[in-house]
Amino acid sequence: MRIGILGTGGMATTLGGAWVRAGHEVLVGGRDRAAAEETAARIGAAGHGTLADAAAYGPAVLAAVPADVGPELVKGFAEVLAGRTVIDCSNPIVPGDDGLVLSTGATTSIARRMADAAPDARVVKAFNLCHDSIWTLPRPEFQGAPLAVPFCGDDPGALDLTAALITSMGCTPLPCGGLARAVYVEATAAFAIGAWLDGAEPRFAFPVPMAASV
């Protein structure tokens, strides 16, 4: 699959690298051409260029930019992104009085705002729950099971494409419904990251129901 990546930071580098290892053709695009070239070289990407180059590269586009930048960025490329699957991996998280909170006020998601900004793009929320270091693992696996990757969106074709990308990385697709549910995926990230920062392990809060003795 041909995948354009908007951005040159941590998620662009590690997710892009994971997709290159999975056999996909990746083009890294950035505002800074030198940074895009460096990132592309580091991960063995097929090429590098501008943000516009990445937006037009293939059927899948990863928006690996800060949450507050995403909607305005895709708005500028709305025409070229029409019909493409745009994957939002950002987390709109800011410090609050009681810990991390969503900068969106928990009433909407960045993915929804991106979809509104580029209405003909097929926006999917995915890959936002793990630290970027997880995507450097050849096959993310924990306690003998492949990593599950939650994702949600409204377009069936975009969901199928995203599931195929997840599977190609050795992970398990975890569909979570329509794009209206992206706010819950983002809120889950706020909860989990807050727990990690406090030194806790959030996965212990979700035991498998069948594990309980009756």
Describe what this molecule looks like in 3D:
- The protein is of the alpha/beta class and 214 residues long.
- The chain is 36% helix and 22% strand.
- The protein is built from 8 helices and 12 strands.
- The strands form 3 sheets. The chain has an 8-stranded mixed beta sheet, with helices on both faces. It has a two-stranded antiparallel ribbon with strand order 6-7.
- α7 links the parallel β11 and β12.
- α1 runs parallel beside α2 and α4 runs parallel beside α6.
- The protein is globular and about 55 Å long.
Layout of secondary structure:
Elements (H helix, E strand, L loop, with lengths): L1 E5 L3 H12 L3 E5 L3 H11 L3 E3 L1 H5 L4 E4 L6 H7 L1 H4 L3 E4 L4 E4 L2 E4 L7 H8 L4 E5 L14 E2 L2 E2 L1 E6 L2 H13 L3 E4 L6 H16 L17
Parallel strand pairs: 1-2, 1-4, 2-3, 4-5, 5-8, 11-12
Antiparallel strand pairs: 6-7, 8-11, 9-10
Helix pairs in contact: 1-2, 4-6
InterPro entries: NAD(P)-bd_dom_sf (IPR036291), P5C_Rdtase_cat_N (IPR028939), STEAP_metalloreductase (IPR051267)
Protein name: NAD(P)-binding domain-containing protein
Keywords: Oxidoreductase
